[in-house]
Amino acid sequence: MRKLLTLGVSALALTIGASTANAEGKLSIYHWFEYIPQELLNKFAAENDIEVTMDTFDSNESMLAALKAGKLGSYDVSVPGDYMVKIMAGAGLLDTFEPAELSNFGNISAQWMDVDFDNGRHSSIPYQWGSTSFSVNRDVYSGDIQTTAILFDPPAELRGKINVLDSQGEVLAMASMHLGIPQCTSDRGQLRALNDLLQSAKPHWASFGSDIAKDVLVSGDAAAGMIWNGFSAKARAEGANVEYAFPKQGYVVWMDNVVLLKDAPNRDNALKFMNFLLDPVNAAVVTNYAQYTAGVDGVDGFLDEAVTSAPELNPPAGGAGQFIMACSEEVQTVYDKIWTDLKK
Amino acid sequence: MAGLIKQSTSNTSTYAGLGPLLMLPSWLVVGFFLVLPVSMMLVYSFLTKEFRGGVIWEFSLAAYDQFFFDRGLFGDAPPVIEWTYITIFWRSIWQAALATVFCLLIGFPTAWFIATRTGPNKSIWLFLITIPYWVNLLIRTISMKFLIRDTGPLNEFLMWTGMISDPIHMINTNFAVQLGLFYSYLPFMVLPIYASVERYNFTFSEAAADLYASRWVTLTKVILPFVKPGIIAGCILVFVPSLGAFLAPDLLGGAKNFMIGSLIEEQFKGNAGNWPFGAAVSMILLSMVLVVLTYYARQQSKVEAR
Predict the structure, then answer these.
(1) CA Rg, chain B, in Å?
(2) Do B87 and A344 count as a contact with CB atoms less than 8 A apart?
(3) Structural domain count of chain A
(4) CATH architecture of B88-259
(5) CA distance B96 to chain A (A)
(6) What pTM, to 2 d.p., does this model score?
(7) How far apart are CA A122 and CA A6, in angstroms?
(8) What number is the ipTM of this complex?
(9) Which of A125, A140, A187, B21, CA to CA, is 20 to 30 A from B68?
(10) Are residues A196 and A321 in the same domain?
């Protein structure tokens, strides 16, 4: 026993010793899972002699919860979606910077400069943008898929073989589009209709899951599934015969943004990292990896052919994409009840 | 679990005065890992929720009200009993109970088999039982998913042998959840039962046989009463974590229905962001587990008193 104890103590001492032998500086990233290639992090670390660590999350809400529960102050940057940037700014979780602090600030595409969630980009820079809708396995179903009925009133071939994202915001937004009602409506009749729609659709769904969204399509566990466009492109690249839909009733458009967190322990390195990501060469590396679309000008020359030609990344002209709205507290309470009733 | 710990009363004089100091580590452990977090949870369950996570330091019974009373979709209907959360609790309790029964049915013979081996064989069998637990629970649950999916090796094998022509649909069913719970917690049943069977003196069985007891009577009147503490400990060790499990229901059951664990998780990590309600559900769960454990401790002390 004593021997074991000594062993344990010396092992502990070793790890402490190892972690004090450091690079010049540090950078602590809080990021989505499977969203940045390790080589890019290595490149940044090598160029700036900075030790980079990264934790991952699987939803905007879980990231918000972790930061509120005391993680603020341990991370430098995070990557919230559009509506979440607004929520985080409102909760006082973001720091601001001056455009002059980022030499590549001018690379931000004009259409992503004056966004309503961070007008003029004082706390955030564009990371990638894309859409959320669903993909269908074409071996199983060959009919028209450009309709949200695939999810909410599916054809016989797809019933019981559908995975939906385990994400209240995206599911309720898509359901609202299917019904043709506004997001975050406070109209009681519309909210009741939303509730009824989800209750009637659930028996057709096989599972709820976000991080599994690609795997279930590739493995064949699901024949259709709600998914992000880049994730669907990856599923196709991995051999699944899936087609991504841009339904006529609408689909979710989103933009993820790198934000400077309040009380960042390494603010300077965080800004270096943000500047690094605004360099078209590096933004293109992310796009080639994640298969979404960069919010930076000048990436075109660095993109893979597979990415530029991917149907998932080229929505039809005049597509009915909508950003997710952050609901008022009153409506959110009803949404929570609808969601709990759906999963009770 | 008071019954499991024998208090030593010898040598008190040698360490007189050191008592409080020697108690310090256990008080620190109990205080830091038990009293502090549980009290925090208790306090949070009586606070007002802050929109999108967090609490406002004002006393409120809203969390418990939400658990017990249903006021309709818009929160202004006259209150009736809320069945949503009772349904979720009942589902979790039922699943945990089933998992416990399956673990007992397989675990008892397994423990018996191991305890009756001789020499090094015993250690080898025990060792084999623990091997899967060197791997993280998440990884094991995902591997189980790969095994039983429609296109997984199990179905492919059965189809290859010609026993079935279409894959048996197992993934995203209650069967899959049961399988996951059973696989996760079986050793927690085997090990305590093994410990009590190992102490069993087999001459008792011989004596029973000499007195014309049938095998069944020997098992129920002689062996089972002796190993009962091990069985109860095993049942608790399987039942309690199964009650809060959410990996198996999420990954193998398809997360279609909330379990107690995923309901609590949703309050902190999901859109709901209702920390007081999450804390209240945790407190209700904790109270239920406490009732079970108190019952067990009472039974134990009755046994000791005899």
Answers:
(1) 24
(2) yes
(3) 2
(4) Orthogonal Bundle (1.10)
(5) 17
(6) 0.85
(7) 52
(8) 0.82
(9) A187
(10) yes
